[in-house]
Amino acid sequence: MALAEAITRAVPNSSARDYSSTGTPSVEVAPGSIVAVLQYLRDDPAHAYTALIDITAVDHVAGEGRFDVIYVLRSPTRRAALLVKARVPSDDPRLPSATPLWKAADWAEREVWDMFGIRFEGHPNLRRILMYEPFEGHPLQKSYAYDRRQPLVEERDPIANPWWIAFTLRYHPMRVWAVAGQISTLMLGTSNGMSLAPLVSSTRNCVFGSTS
User: Fold this and answer.
1) pTM to 2 decimals?
2) Which domain holds residue 207?
């Protein structure tokens, strides 16, 4: 049975079809079905694509009105690779997040958002990962002007004054109080000899957001 046919039987609204790629088996599915398709490919023993290697995107032609989002999967037990593609419109590019299936999707989806402006609904912490927060636009969109000037930002010491502090103060001010409380607890815990691992994890989640 062809892969697209198997996917369509398992996920009827996927509209799956095989398509030609660079020698790697590839399938295109409807964007709204992407999470169900990925879960089927991961959990079905006949496929067992348990590893998410990458998520990337392609803006084919400026003004053509579409992006292709490509999920690179691998089955370690079958020693097989697969590309799964979903096409989204450029005027409102969005897909459901794959983070409930793989934690590895977290940073990959953030990179696609940062570079292409494609939103992943349900992502726990969708913010820039390569560019700085005040950056305007998404530089891998073909409509992005190569000579576009960005707003000047203050020079800062990334160790003494990292960008995540400014981001947290601007977008998540209530986390500042939570972090202050965690730091106080960490200091008390150090003096009392208690285990700090849970507190460190909790503090990290207060600042960066939980990825669970």
Assistant:
1) 0.74
2) 154-212
pLDDT in tens, 111-150: 999 999 999 999 999 999 999 888 899 999 988 888 888 8
Nearest to 53 by CA among 69, 73, 38: 73
Nearest to 102 by CA among 27, 24, 26, 38: 38
Which H/E stretch holds residue 204?
helix 197-208
Q: Compute the CA torsion angle 182, 188, 192, 198 (nearest 10 deg).
A: 0
In the chain, the number of structural domains is 2
Domain boundary among 120, 144, 168: 144
What is the DSSP secondary structure assignment for residue 94, as one 8-state letter? Answer: E
Phi, psi of 96 (to 5 degrees): -65, 145
Express each pLDDT in 25-55 by its tens digit. Answer: 999 999 999 999 999 999 999 999 999 999 9
Residues 162 and 181 occupy one common structural domain: yes
| Per-residue pLDDT, 183 | 61
Q: Does residue 107 sit in the same domain as residue 189? A: no
Q: How far apart are CA 141 and CA 148, in angstroms?
A: 12
